[in-house]
Automatic annotation (TrEMBL):
The chain crosses the membrane at residues 61-84, 96-117, 123-145, 186-208, 274-296, 308-329, 336-358, 404-427, 433-451. The keyword DNA-binding does not apply. It is a multi-pass membrane protein. Its main location: membrane. GO terms for molecular function: D-glucose transmembrane transporter activity. GO terms for cellular component: brush border; plasma membrane. This is Solute carrier family 2, facilitated glucose transporter member 2. Signal peptide: none annotated. The keyword Lyase does not apply. Keywords: Cell membrane, Glycoprotein, Membrane, Sugar transport, Transmembrane, Transmembrane helix, Transport. It catalyses: D-glucose(out) = D-glucose(in); D-galactose(in) = D-galactose(out); L-dehydroascorbate(out) = L-dehydroascorbate(in); D-fructose(out) = D-fructose(in). It is found in: Cell membrane.
């Protein structure tokens, strides 16, 4: 995006990197004499030529700082994702969201002031703090939505979380155009605007009731829980919800605080935890971030003169199909939509690579690649995009849920970081064949989903837990049955 180029240009100005060196990083050329290094000797305000060795060193420095600016966001998300559940239990869901929003405001303030100070330091620090905010939010929001939503609307409301995210991405792509805010004069305002969603959410949280499940199960405040439920349901009759929470509380009372190790050692938690991690890994390793990170260059390779607008088109498709999944998720079911999305992405990844491989031989193959990108994003947002976030919350009861959500969010951020760090090297090695690799990964996750992931549509938390126990129990009974048959056979010999 144009905004990225402007920020890199400002890094060069802040560090005194010479103009000639700009061609070394993706042709980030800007016609401004402000970026020329000036001699520090009085009376000689003219550009000073740099030795070739210093030019090479400065190129590496700019690349390193820009990589840090991008990757520290994911690092912050990984760190904070472990504390989302703990903070939600300690402060309550609403107060925890307020605390997370304060981090967003601090991060936005640092980035908004980047033009006034050492831009690279302020942006890296601001991105790190913003990453901490996003890491907390990625656990707290699905947790809160999952606990307040009625069973019949849990999937649709969970998908709205993803819809808000993709809408924000599209808005940022549009206002980041060079003739709006992505230019030398206004780029710092673009970065500072990240505070707006946090401010808006903080204002709306004033009108949001605390999670009734948190109040009843965690704090044992039945009166407050009923009051919260009545506000949420818009009805005085909340008997059904209270009965469901009482059953969950009875199970939770027999559960001790669940640690990360127990999620993998306790047979009741192991299978849903593995499924939860695999769903998040499928989301990130599907190749979707590779497309978002490098869609502009892909469109450029396909021959578009203005690839940035095609990237914005991808963002628009992203939003439209996420909105569509809001209406589909309670009708088609979570598992079905996830399988449809992954299957569609598998074929799109193949067509994308075929289009890029044959682009030199057939010019019309560029349209195949571009169509595959748009369809890939569409299938992603139908299922694999929104579903893992709220489906994990459906797998676990109140006791293990915060820890499970924290671990799943950490897995998501870690996979995001790995893709951001490694994709360019993989792409350089594989060339246009890189999306064949993603097709293989998507196929593996599709098969796993088909055989291991249960449907959670319309089921209570207890019913979902029983479904996992049934799967685990059936495997044990099958093993026992085989052993008995073997003993009978040996006994008759």
């Amino acid at each position: 995006m144009a905004g990225d180029k402007v920020i890199i240009s400002h890094y060069r100005h802040a560090l005194g990197v010479p103009l000639d060196d700009r061609k070394a990083t993706d042709d980030y050329v800007f016609n401004t004499t402000d970026a020329l290094p000036i001699s520090l000797h009085p009376g000689t305000p003219t550009p000073v030529p740099w030795p070739e060795e210093e030019t090479v060193t400065s190129t590496g420095l700019i690349t390193m700082l820009w990589s840090l600016s991008v990757s520290t966001f994911a690092v912050g998300g990984m760190i904070a994702s472990f504390f989302g559940g703990w903070l939600g239990d300690k402060l309550g869901r609403i107060k925890a969201l307020f605390a997370a929003n304060s981090l967003s405001l601090v991060g936005a303030l640092l980035m908004g002031c980047a033009k006034l100070g050492p831009s690279h330091i302020l942006i890296i620090a601001g991105r790190s703090i913003s990453g901490l905010y996003c890491g907390l939010i990625s656990g707290l929001v699905p947790m809160y939505i999952g606990e307040i939503a009625p069973t019949s609307l849990r999937g649709a409301l969970g998908t709205l979380h993803q819809l808000a995210i993709v809408t924000g991405i599209l808005i940022s792509q549009i206002i980041g155009l060079d003739f709006i805010l992505g230019n030398q004069d206004l780029w710092h305002i673009l970065l500072g605007l990240s505070a707006v969603p946090a401010l808006l959410q903080s204002l709306l949280l004033i009108f949001c009731p605390e999670s009734p499940r948190y109040l009843y199960i965690k704090l044992e405040e039945e009166v407050k829980a009923k009051k919260s439920l009545k506000r949420l349901r818009g009805s005085n009759d909340v008997t059904k919800d209270m009965n469901e929470m009482k059953k969950e509380k009875e199970e939770a009372s027999s559960e001790q605080k669940v640690s990360v190790i127990q999620l993998f050692t306790n047979p009741s938690y192991r299978q849903p935890m593995i499924v939860a991690l695999m769903l998040h890994m499928a989301q990130q390793f599907s190749g979707i971030n590779a497309i978002f990170y490098y869609s502009t260059s892909i469109f450029q390779t396909a021959g578009l003169s203005q690839p940035v607008y095609a990237t914005i088109g991808v963002g628009a498709i992203n939003m439209v199909f996420t909105a569509l999944s809001v209406f589909l998720v309670e009708k088609a079911g979570r598992r079905s939509l996830f399988l449809i999305g992954m299957s569609g992405m598998f074929f799109c990844a193949i067509f994308m690579s075929v289009g890029l491989v044959l682009l030199d031989k057939f010019a019309w193959m560029s349209y195949v690649s571009m169509s595959a990108i748009f369809l890939f994003v569409s299938f992603f947002e139908i299922g694999p995009g929104p579903i893992p976030w709220f489906m994990v919350a459906e797998f676990f009861s109140q006791g293990p849920r915060p820890t499970a959500l924290a671990l799943a969010a950490f897995s998501n951020w870690a996979c995001n970081f790995i893709i951001a760090l490694c994709f360019q090297y993989i792409a350089d090695f594989c060339g246009p064949y890189v999306f064949f690799l993603f097709a293989g990964v998507v196929l593996a996750f599709t098969l796993f989903t088909f055989f291991k992931v249960p449907e959670t549509k319309g089921k209570s938390f207890e019913e979902i837990a029983a479904e996992f126990r049934k799967k685990s129990g059936s495997a044990q009974r099958s093993k026992a049955h085989v052993e008995m048959e073997f003993l009978r056979a040996t006994g008759t010999v």
